Amino acid sequence: MKKLIIALAATAALLGGITGGAQAQDKTKICFIYVGSKTDGGWTQAHDIGRQALQEHFGDKIETPFLENVPEGPDAERAIERMARSGCAMVFTTSFGFMDATVKVAQKFPDVKFEHATGFKAAENLATYNSRFYEGRYIQGQIAAKMSKKGVAGYIASFPIPEVVMGINAFLLGAQSVNPDFELKVVWANTWFDPGKEADAAKALIDQGVDILTQHTDTTAPMQVAAERGILAFGQASDMIAAGPNTQLTAIVDTWGAYYIKRVQALLDGNWKSEQIWDGLKDGILTMAPYTNMPDDVKAMAEETEAKIKSGELHPFTGPVNKQDGTQWLAEGEKADDGALLGMNFYVEGVDDKLPQ
Amino acid sequence: MRIELQRRSQSSRLFSFVSPLLALVLTLFFGGIMFWMLGKQPLDALYSFFVEPLLEVWSLHELAVKAAPLILIGVGLSICYRSNNWNIGAEGQFTIGAITGSILPVLYPEWHSPMILPLMLVMGMVGGALYAGIPALLKTRFNTNEILTSLMLVYIAQLYLDWLVRGPWRDPQGYNFPQTKSFVPEAVLPEILESGRAHLAIAFALVAAVALWFMMRFMLKGFEVTVLGQSERAGRFAGFSARRMVWFSMMLSGALAGLAGISEVSGSIGHVQPTISPGYGFTAIIVAFLGRLNPLGIIASGFVLALTYLGGEAAQLSIGISDKVSRVFQGLLLFFVLSCDTLIHYRIRIVTQKLRGGAAHHA
């Protein structure tokens, strides 16, 4: 016992000796809150790459602390409040489920600016930002229809919120533009981030006979399963080529960095305004990973579609489009407006699934 | 050569009092080493982990919010464990309590009445108690092992909650997100002070702890718990029933876990969602043992464990270490508590091969 006490005392003295003082802080604090791990290979990693780009751009002028693996629930509110209190000038909350928590904390701290990704509730000091992921999904659908031998793709979905339903519909519309009989099977993983569940969903879909896989969840687990089982797949949020060098056709890559830089610049210049931003391929908030593992003609088609979407010549949700029950949604040539897209809670014709509601 | 644990003829009274503190010191010490290996200043890191959350009023509120369910569940479990009933399923009773307590605000969202909150709390307690009654019934009727049954019932409760909020209880206006309607203001557990988020749950926890301490110290029931826990046979001579004690202790701890569940949902979350607990029911087991199964000790240990949750966040923000560190601290703490306790009752003896051979020869 005596020895133990001596050892403890000695170490405490040693630790005391090497402890330095805290540095003075005059940098602007730009804070981030993540739902998953910053190395998830998908959604959160894409935000973290954006954060690093931001840090690099402004260098010593700012610091960018973050909290990862924050669950969507009561802990989120405390975590966001902690950030606001720790002197953050601006807080980016990067998951849909942080919406109500962000709104509550934003009310308490009118001087702090908040930006919530993919939500729909804004305030004087709370902006929202989102990306038109569906544009990339449409391109993926076209590629899937060309590449699939069986004409069936599998879709690993997270939560049946409009954002996700919109992606499913865009994918199928893209596929149908190539092959009108194309089918789509959907499995709801009911999580954003759970490698185990995502892999199980991938296996279930492959066992049901799909030969192309796409996902709206955050990790590379489905890509790995697709690689093991020898089918093709699309990456999500980050370029997942490392997880499937012979598997990934392309990926929707979220490139938040430019957006983050733009908003922080506005903050530093003193002209930040609460806005509801919904940018797409043409703004560079969304890019397509290199088209790989496909013949040149398919690649050419994908590139052409990408160019048309960027130029505004093609809108993925252009009529005629029917709802799943066969009733008409968009008439010939009619384009869906943003409001309809953001509240989307129905499937288009051809989805082999019942929307959970 | 092998290592043996040999029972001490007498265990030190001083050290059975000091051991939780010693465990705490050892945890801090090895935690410091871990921070040092991660390339951080150990004292800075420990400071931001264990001290920073205590320096601001709002953060103390958050500490109370986290500690309340841990203490409520922990004191209930302490009665169970003292009576030699091993309820490992508090997490499940917490979940069921949250569900039964939420029936009124979820199914009758238009009902605005001051009566709703007391009813919710009672229903939560009843739900938790009944759910803990299942392993009690299985134990008294079929002599099943309550450790296994109560643990397995946790997963059933969690999956039931999951199904409920994705299906029948889902808010039709909630953009298909798996959560119920938000509770009406009358169904929300009120906050205690203006200055932060701490709500009535912490008051419930303190009242429950003091009441159970009083029971254990001054009432016949407390004596009954202790006697039956130490020797069932001796208890029988005193006219106590071990079977009735199974029911009493399980349902008491179930009711408190259920109260913690509905308090968390009503006071902290404001609606029901698939995940309502970061494992309070399991962490409360550490709380109960760290508090030496004494309800007053559990108040202190509840705050310590709550601090490890908050500290993880604070340390992540101020010095950028992973949130996994809080789990490591919880694990270290339990490890040292249990090993300190073991070494109070046992001494380590190193038995050499030669001795063993000699013993065999004699036999």
TrEMBL record, chain A:
Signal peptide: 1-24
Keywords: Signal, Sugar transport, Transport
CDD domains xref list: PBP1_BMP-like
Domain ABC transporter substrate-binding protein PnrA-like, first and last residues per copy: 27-309
Highest rank taxon of the organism: Bacteria
Pfam families: Bmp
Protein name per Swiss-Prot or TrEMBL: Simple sugar transport system substrate-binding protein
UniProtKB/TrEMBL annotation, chain B:
One Pfam entry name: BPD_transp_2
Residue ranges of the TM segments: 12-38, 58-80, 92-109, 115-138, 147-165, 198-216, 245-263, 275-291, 298-322, 328-346
Membrane topology: Multi-pass membrane protein
Keyword Cell membrane: yes
Keywords, alphabetical: Cell membrane, Membrane, Sugar transport, Transmembrane, Transmembrane helix, Transport
Localization of this protein: Cell membrane
PANTHER family (UniProt xref): ABC TRANSPORTER, PERMEASE PROTEIN, GUANOSINE ABC TRANSPORTER PERMEASE PROTEIN NUPP
Protein name: Simple sugar transport system permease protein
Taxonomy of the source species: Bacteria, Pseudomonadati, Pseudomonadota, Alphaproteobacteria, Hyphomicrobiales
